[in-house]
Amino acid sequence: MESGSWEPGRPLRIALLGCGVVGTQVARLLTRDAEELGQRVGVPVELAGIAVRRLGRERDLDVPDELFTTDAAGLVARGDIDVVIEVIGGIDPARELILSALQHGASVVTANKALLAEDGATLYEAAEKAERDLYFEAAVAGAIPIVRPLRESLAGDSVQRVIGIVNGTTNFILDAMTTTGQGFNEALDEAQRLGFAEADPTADIEGFDAAAKAAILSELAFHTRVTLGDVHREGITEVTAADIRSAEDMGCVVKQLAICEKLDTPNGPAVSARVHPAMISRDHPLASVRGAYNAVFVESESAGQLMFYGPGAGGAPTASAVLGDVVSVARNRRNGVFGPGESTHAHLEVLDMGQARTRYHVSLDVDDRAGVLAQVANQFAEFDVSIRTVRQEGSGSDAQLVIVTHEADDAALAATVNSLRDLDGVRAVRSVMRVEGGV
Q1: Would you name the residues annotated as active-site residues?
Q2: C-beta separation of 109 from 322 below 8 A
Q3: Which of 208, 301, 318, 413 sits in a 20 to 30 Å window from 39, CA-based?
Q4: Mean pLDDT in the chain?
Q5: Which long-range contacts link 299-304 to residues 24+ away (Cβ below 8 Å)?
Q6: 294-311 residue pLDDT tens
Q7: Average pLDDT for residues 247-262, to the nearest whole number?
Q8: Residue ranges of domains in the chain, CATH in brackets
Q9: What is the residue-wise DSSP string for 386-424?
Q10: In this predicted structure, which of 106-110, 293-297, 312-316, 340-344 has the lowest mean pLDDT?
Q11: Which long-range contacts (CB under 8 A, 24 or more apart) does 152-158 make?
Q12: Model-level pTM greater than 0.90?
């Protein structure tokens, strides 16, 4: 039998790499719902092996012990495996295992956002060469169907912008700060106590997780290769209670946003991808996303505005996305076809953050005397940044200026803020935050 070939009449065999929170749920659904899944695919499906780090560990699974192995490399290279599900995470050994699976004739379903964002091109190339599928709905926003709509449903449209809340931990923290008045550290402690944040929350609160997802969304939306290194990333650790109050005064809330957009430049259309906290109008649909939920807002030329909302993480929601991919891939194997691969035909330039177009909310502690406002306004004018609104709060030694700009290049806005720090009459730049969503 040819390595990886499927003979009509036998079950489609599935191998699972990883049996943590998500992997356990995947294994449970594959075994519990095997008959129903087989009916959806058109042939029986069979869980043929589960690769784990350690044998003998107590697992809440009704699965024969002989299915477990510590030899992940041997499992994916067996030659009789039709679909490999990878939920190990990280870069290595996941990359080598996926490449081996494809080389040995298996299609792959993965939830590995970090690997796709860092080296997706290698995986796509291997899948194309092997004429096998590489599906990854679970890599972005958990159970929310967003990869397939961008990859297939909107393939005939022109997507202009994708803006999303794609990390449940940061959304939970910022929502808690907004609704309860907690500081960042208090909200983080609560998120960890409730299981929404890891013991080491760095990947979430510093924006690494969201940046990987932004890279994947950008590549899908704009048909241009975008890697993790192309995404501007800022975390939420510097967001203060004062920022939350300032947003409220403007009719906004603070959210950690992944923003992927196509911009017109003198050299033609280009792509910008960034992750950072921002104020967003309470009228925007993303402002109402509460707790650990995720949402992705897509703006396209013909379809208009589309909103995708739901649980963005957790074992069961992520397993749902994995199993959806498994059914699609298994159908393709049964029919002798394979689905869409990498689409990077546009080859658009990927801009750095300085070329992105955004707006700023700037709060300054200033001397309460004549001429200070004019000095401040002159600094904005010097860098060609237009002021939209300005208000003064307090008086005397407690005077503050709160300025909201019109849209400008981020580099010009950053240069303006830096110049204000050295301006006579400005005692301190109290806070700086980008503003999104049409305020």
Answers
A1: 213
A2: yes
A3: 318
A4: 93
A5: 299/159, 299/160, 299/161, 299/162, 299/163, 300/154, 300/157, 300/158, 300/159, 300/160, 301/157, 301/158, 301/159, 301/160, 302/157, 302/158, 303/154, 303/157
A6: 999 999 999 999 999 998
A7: 95
A8: 12-143+316-335 (3.40.50.720), 153-311 (3.30.360.10), 356-436 (3.30.70.260)
A9: -EEEEEEES-GGG-EEEEEEPPEEHHHHHHHHHHHHT-T
A10: 312-316
A11: 152/340, 154/298, 154/300, 154/303, 155/340, 155/343, 157/300, 157/301, 157/302, 157/303, 158/300, 158/301, 158/302
A12: yes
| Cα dihedral 390, 394, 397, 398 sign | negative
**What is the DSSP code string of 309-362?**
EEE--SHHHHHHHHHHHHHHHHHHHHHT--------TT-PEEPPGGGSEEEEEE
Stronger pLDDT, 163 or 392, i.e. the higher one: 163
Q: What tokens were used for 167?
A: 């990390």
Could you give phi then psi for residue 277, rounded to 5 degrees? Answer: -70, 150
Q: Is the pLDDT of residue 3 over 70?
A: no
- DSSP conformation letters of 12-63: EEEEEE--SHHHHHHHHHHHHTHHHHHHHHTS-EEEEEEE-SSSS---S---
CB 141 within 8 A of CB 113: no
Q: Which two tokens stand for residue 254?
A: 């603070």
**Contact call for residues 123 and 354 (beta carbons, < 8 A):** no
CA 35 from chain center: how many Å?
A: 33
